[in-house]
Amino acid sequence: MVASSAEARRQRILQVAKSHFERFGFRRTRIEDIARDAGIAKGAVYLEFESKEVLLHAVIEALFGEIGRRYAAEVMPLESPRERLRATLRFSYGELARDTLFERLVREDPELVVLRSLAESGDNPRKADAQVEMIRGWVLEGIERGEFRADLDVDVVPFVIGVLRFLHYHTGLVTTGDRISRERLLEAVIDIFIAGLSAPAPSPPSAHKSPGRGSRKR
Predict the structure, then answer these.
(1) Residues 163, 152, 127: CA angle, nearest 5 degrees
(2) Under a CB-based contact definition with an 8 Å cutoff, are residues 29 and 17 in contact?
């Protein structure tokens, strides 16, 4: 009972903290405000999380866990490596559109200092390396299956996908007004990217016409 109560308190802190980080950003969020809205003492927050940065990291880690489970269910079962890469970008854009936390953090901190510190902490470098190897393996699989060009720089593709994942945040200028929707633009980006990876379709066999019935050799 004590353990479940402590876990419930921790989850409550994470839930309230996420809403504050989304609304106020990292700099303007205050631990005392989180404690008040969570219905606990400020010191109780610090018993769980030693600093505001550690708390943000925990919020993001919990969010990554949820996203990872959805990704495993929606993308990983796809048989075709080309469709897995296509679905990876669609999934990323959908998640970024649904959850405002990352957009808020990126807008507040273009240098991504806080997010970079998370990426470099704990087991996260190993997880990032594993993701790179997974994408690299998909590209190699696609080449073997004839889906992707054989001349691709396999080592670079995972990092290009990493850049494209965050394109969601940088479409505001060209989607101003009613010229084009963000969704249509991002879908076109995915199509063009996948087309650039894809092996050319085999040329159809040339048709040889047989001489007609009434034709005569000369």
Answers:
(1) 45
(2) yes
Please, which residues have CB within 8 angstroms of residue 46's CB and are 6 or more apart in sequence?
31
Q: Which of 94, 88, 86 is nearest to 198 (CA)?
A: 86
All residue ranges of the chain with pLDDT < 50 are 1, 214-218
The DSSP call for residue 212 is P
Q: Are 86 and 194 spatial neighbours (Cβ–Cβ below 8 Å)? A: yes
Which residue segments constitute the domains of the chain, with CATH numbers given?
A: 1-52 (1.10.10.60), 75-197 (1.10.357)
Return the DSSP state at 176. Answer: S
Residue 198's DSSP bridge partners are 148
pLDDT tens digits for range 36-53: 999 999 999 999 999 999
pLDDT in tens, 181-207: 889 999 999 999 999 999 998 777 765
91/165 Cα distance (integer angstroms): 9
